[in-house]
Predict the structure of Pentatricopeptide repeat-containing protein.
Amino acid sequence: MVSKGCMLDVYSYNILINGHCRPKRADEAQMLVKEMCDMEVVPDIVTYNTLMDDFCKMGRIQDAQNLFPQMQACGQLPNVQTYNILMDGLCKNQELPMALKLFQEMVDNKLDPNMVSYNILIEGLFIGGKVEYARDIFSGLSSKGLLPNVRTYNIMISGFCSSGLTTEAEMLLQEMKDKGCSPDGCIYNTIIRGFLQQQ
């Protein structure tokens, strides 16, 4: 493209960056971001979200966090997906206090957390042993105009079973059915494992 005089734009670079991130070559993808800046092509929110997601999946949370101020310096404001990516990475790497702080920052910045945001937070709370807090957030979803989905119920049931609360898990399964949300095989498997662990 370049040899034929076609200039690469942000979309072209995003495709290249995404391709580099898939096989976990985030350092090379980051070099492409530097190249973009040298070519006076401004990285957009997709560029940063893609890089951040790959760093998080690789467990390189600090590198992902470093992108946060960098993107803001380039005039790109984080969106809900940006916050979700970073919160998920923090929760999965046992950095729950930082994830909670980030969640609050998202709310303070007038960004409405979506169901994905709450699923990430609830799962992180269970990982961090904060069962009561996870239960409270789940109970408050309807007041925020959000309906739990199969993923939400799966997280809750799995969290209850891991905490030895199989009776609560079974009650939640019934509530799920009553509300017209069909359980999948994963949920049944989780409850079966939970009961077997109680034997």
About this structure: The longest helix spans residues 26-38.
